Structures are given as C-alpha cells and as structure tokens.
# Entry
Amino acid sequence: MMMGRRMFFLSAASLAGGLVYVGTRRTAPVEAGAVEGVAKEVNIVEFSDVGTRKGVVRVPKVVKSDKEWRAQLSPLAYAVTRKEETENSFSGKLWNLHDKGLYRCICCDTALFSSETKYDSRTGWPSFWQVIAKENVQLIEDHSFGMDRTAVVCTRCDGHIGHLFDDGPNPTGLRYCMNSVAMKFVKSPTGA
# Structure
C-alpha cells in the first residue's frame, strides 16, 4: 500500500505533535508514604539523647508538602535533604566536631549516627563507619552525574543525608559520608 505525500506529512505531523505533548506534560507529584489517604508506617530504632537504645518502634512516615519543608528547614538544609544537593566540603559545622553524642536527622529527629563511629576521613564531611541502627536509614542506588553511588536517606522522612562508600576503616570498611546540614548534633550530658 502506497502512502501519498500529503498523508505522509499529516501522519508525521500528528506523531510529532503527540511526542511533544507526552514529553512536556507533567504528572502530579505523589507524596511519599501516602497510599489512598493512609499514612505509611515504618520501623525505626529509638535512642535516648545519651545513646541508650530504647527499641524498635512503628511510627508514621513523616510526609510534608514542599512548602512545609521550606518553612521548617534552612535553604541549604532544604536543598540537601529534599533535593539531594551536597554542601561544600569543609563548610558544615559538624565535619570537625569531636564531642560525644548523637547525630539526628534535621527533618524528623531520627537517630542516625553515634559519635563513637565517627572518624576523620579527610574529605571535609562528617564520616562514620557505621549507622546507629540499620532500620533508621535506607540505601538507594544513585546514578546521578554519571557515577554509580549509594545514597543514604532517613527511613522516617526520606531526607537525603549523604552517600555510602566502601573505602572506610575497620571494622566495617565503610564510609558514610554525610552532609552536616542534614543532621543536628545532640551532645551527651557530661559524664554520660
């Protein structure tokens, strides 16, 4: 079956128009954790501010609108935790901190790391050889910038904290390279 020139151009124009429509249409964002109006729950391990493990608890996933996150966080903390940006090395207030205590998620207060596993990786970012509890973080494949990396996010709020690398010290050989601005430090009381 032969197609005339006019029919060919009309078909080509229709196809091009359809591709433009599909390529430019935006889908409505879906809030993480929301399923048919029911908030998702997750298991995390709770810790006291002195680092005592309280146990596994089931808690609602923290879900907020973009506007609510912007109101709660500094512009840099928002860019890092909600848009997966990275703070400049040697710029965060926690990279060279040597006090004893806990590092908690800036977005939802979930315990992430203990000062007991922090070490100087000479990278300019707070680095740890182990998380405080594997339930409190999720590891996600990250293929941005043409690299294969593993992103570390908070289980409770999906906040981006940093990346995991396999060039750390013993006993794990891991380096959790975190953004200072994605965490808050809770100093252990004196003598604890």
Summary: The chain has one domain: 30-187. The helical segments are 5-24, 66-72, 75-83.
